[in-house]
Amino acid sequence: MINKLPRFSDKHKICIICEGNEEYEYLNRLKDxxxxxxxxxxxxxxxxxxxxxEE
Length: 55
Description:
Helices cover 22% and strands 25% of the residues. The chain is of the alpha+beta class.
């Protein structure tokens, strides 16, 4: 059976803003393991953590 779905020649760019180091490291590891299709180009941004300042 012939695949009639169009083939993507350009990568789709996806930016994920992570809320902290744990989320960033987790998604970075998934990116390194290549669990997503190669047609996607992921970039990760670590926004840091929100900490309460003690008064």
